[in-house]
Amino acid sequence: MKSTIENTVEFVKEKLEGAEAGHDWYHIERVWKLSKKIAVTEDCNLEVVELSALLHDIADPKFHNGDETIAPKIAREFLEGQQVSEDVIEKVLFIIKNISFKNRGEVPAELPVELKIVQDADRIDAIGAIGIGRTFNFGGFKNNPMYDPEIQPSLNMSKDQYKKSNGTTINHFYEKLLLLKDLMNTAKGKELAQERHDYMLGFLDQFFKEWNVD
């Protein structure tokens, strides 16, 4: 008999078939692996960590007209079908609802360690070489300009402003990606984020040299 985790992997793979490349199964798989890597350094409920990592983007609101109720509903129905305990389900749904960068101003002051772990993993996958690739892929998906010297980054956006933003791909580094290193929750997350952060800084230096034909 397959385990709940194995069944969840199959469910997510099927659900995200054909998804935008930055938010597809491979993104989920990387976040899952990163979550497990961080979890071994923390005192946590590994089942909650793994299920949350696997289900955290099961229905990303940005691909569902901003609707943040779809993912928790899909996750609950699936987990109930797997006979997962209500306590674990509630913890997983809490993580799904509160993991997002855009929701950071709405989360409680005290966060469960499992959320800290999965959130770090998700944010680590948004930076570094993978993060650069995902950012340009999503910018192309939305047909956003790659860069426009006349458009300045919009810092300190509200949640609604962030959701509606159609700025340039390069500005997204300053509006979100370069901020993530200092938002890490765990010691392991901070360690993993530093190298990727430095890589992005080097990329941006090279990008502007080439843009300006230096």
Automatic annotation (TrEMBL):
All copies of domain HD, residue ranges: 24-127
Coiled-coil annotated spans: none
Any Pfam family matching the protein: HD
SUPFAM superfamilies named in the record: HD-domain/PDEase-like (SSF109604)
PROSITE patterns assigned to the protein according to its UniProt record, in alphabetical order: HD
InterPro entries: HD/PDEase_dom (IPR003607), HD_domain (IPR006674)
Organism superkingdom: Bacteria
SMART domains: HDc
PANTHER family reported in the protein's UniProt record: HD_PDEASE DOMAIN-CONTAINING PROTEIN (PTHR33594:SF1), SUPERFAMILY HYDROLASE, PUTATIVE (AFU_ORTHOLOGUE AFUA_1G03035)-RELATED (PTHR33594)
Protein's name according to its UniProt entry: HD domain-containing protein
